[in-house]
Amino acid sequence: FRSKLWLRVDSKTVVTWLTNKSQGLPEYYSLIQQCHHLLSWADWEVRISHCYREANQVADILANIGTEGCLEVKIFRTPPLAVHEALYADCMGISWPRQIIE
């Protein structure tokens, strides 16, 4: 029995870097290599795909929190207050439209 991990990312570029074993931009090389190592380290089936920010607002809010100042790992035992409204909307099935022009 293999665990399954579905990683949904709001950057198509990052999806490409992670799925193609790309090195990405030089300033991100170390981070991307760490991601590749982590994704291949455990015995799990990994699926990586793109999703728009509006489809995963909680992740977007957490990513913004992660960019606030320090570079150390942050572990939340409970959801931070900043995501409560988005979590509630998600639980209620509320969706946010997005106009996509291609």
Automatic annotation (TrEMBL):
Lineage, broadest ranks: Eukaryota, Viridiplantae, Streptophyta, Embryophyta, Tracheophyta
GO terms of molecular function: nucleic acid binding; RNA-DNA hybrid ribonuclease activity
A Pfam short name: RVT_3
Endpoints of the signal sequence: none
Domain of life assignment: Eukaryota
InterPro entries: RNase_H-like, RNase_H-like_dom_plant, RNaseH-like_sf, RNaseH_domain, RNaseH_sf
Protein name, entry field: RNase H type-1 domain-containing protein
RNase H type-1 domain mapped to chain residues: 4-64
